[in-house]
Amino acid sequence: MSITYSRVNERSITAIILVLVPIALLVSTTQMRFADLGGAFSPVFFPRIVLWLFIVLASINLVIEFVHQQAPNKPAFKRAFVIAGAFVLYAFTIMPLGFLLASILFCVICLVSLSITKPLWVASFSIGLPASLVLLFNHVLMLPLPTSPFTHWF
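The structure corresponding to this sequence follows.
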């Protein structure tokens, strides 16, 4: 006898919300007017990129959620609180430590809380992603990110 699960559950509702929120935020940015500084210099340039990425990833999550039926599992509140705490810590450390160091710390905390504990994966993602963003914004787009008090390079 097979057990069927309802497609409308906590995970699917969360997936729908995760698609609708960035869409609403993206729509709200269309009404903002700034001086014509060029596309990459607009204050909404980076947030719009992040919102589009968020919409794409949330849409993929939504499709997967409705295509694959999974047994409901117990919510991981401890993991959610650790990641929420990491966001707060990130907000308080990005200006004093700079973007790169604060982002590395944030990535390590989040990956370990998500049970990704292989040192090579944690180190490569935690260093690689923030470093590539520093290279992109500071050195290619010439849009400065908060820098470290220890060196001007990052």
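The chain has a mean pLDDT of 79.
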